[in-house]
Amino acid sequence: MTLTTGPALEHKIAAVTGAGSGMGLATVRAFVREGATVYAMDISQDNLDREFRDQPQVTAIGLDISDSAAVNEAFDRIRENHGKLHALVNAAGVSVPNRRAVEWVDDINHRMVEAMKKGEPFAPEFLGEIPDEDFDRVMKINLYGTFYTTRAAVPLLKAAGGGAITNFASIAGLVSLPMPAYYPASKAAVVGMTRSNAGELAPFNIRVNALAPAGINTAMMNQSGDDHVQALLSLQPLKRLAEPEEVAQTLVFLSSDAGAHYTGQVFSPSGGAYLT
């Protein structure tokens, strides 16, 4: 394969979920800089309109990825406009299902950090306090949503002669971290689906990889408060949160011809918290 010397994603059509904030937003911006036409999808139409109002390279689509029919309709728009797709980034996801759960987890994280400071033991208990609907909601978004968008995108990627899918997993799906089980369960499942899809789609020149971040400076990371951030940073050799723009550069690479020989891999921007 001959690599181009121009913008890395010139003439490429891309779809990015979770595009209204955080790593999804940074990815759309990076893709546009590299010449791509981007379909930016997010549950918040207001966020999309605010961020991309004056960007002709971006088509904003309000989308709940947990709604299978709505996902199909969104990708039908790409089919009608272009007939193909070169890159899909599944960045949409949640760590907790609702505000009540945020407050619950934040309280436990605070008590855990205080115990660590004092050198006291602390054993958080989550399992018995997780309602069915909370587990269902996180799985529906993080796992089912990734499946729905992948299924809808594959025919368009095949029509393009190949391309790249990058799924957002998490370090929580790779190592043991004290937290409600719905999040690591959903992200570990994304890793499994990534590897399975990589094998199935390789004959069609479609590459499928995953990112498993740790501490990234996003609203989702910070919504549980500084105690959660500090607890996570204590596991990292690099004692800082990564910026979304750093992760976006990895997504440019994986979605471009430069990443053409990577598939079935899990890349972990984790400051050294996860080593393989």
What does this structure look like?
- By secondary structure, the chain is of the alpha/beta class.
- The chain has one domain (13-98, 137-223, 240-264): Rossmann fold (3-Layer(aba) Sandwich), CATH 3.40.50.720.
- Helix content is 46%, strand content 12%.
- It contains nine helices and seven strands; from the N terminus they run E-H-E-H-E-H-E-H-H-E-H-E-H-H-H-E.
- The protein has helices spanning 22-33, 45-52, 68-81, 99-118, 132-159, 182-201, 219-222, 226-233, 244-255, and strands at residues 13-17, 37-42, 58-62, 87-90, 163-168, 206-211, 266-267.
- A seven-stranded parallel beta sheet has the order 3-2-1-4-5-6-7, sandwiched between helices.
- Strand 5 (163-168), helix 6 and strand 6 (206-211) form a beta-alpha-beta unit.
- Helix 3 (68-81) runs parallel beside helix 5 (132-159), helix 4 crosses helix 8 (226-233) and helix 5 (132-159) packs parallel to helix 6.
- The two termini are 29 Å apart.
- The mean pLDDT is 91.
How would you sum up this structure in a few lines?
The chain is of the alpha/beta class and 276 residues long.
CATH topology category name? Rossmann fold
Quantity of strands, as a count? 7
- Count of domain modules: 1
Count of alpha/pi helices: 9
How many strands, which pairing sense, and closed or not: the largest β-sheet? 7 strands, parallel
Helical/strand content category: alpha/beta
CATH class: Alpha Beta
Compressed to H and E, one letter per element, the order equals EHEHEHEHHEHEHHHE
Rg, alpha carbons = 19 Å
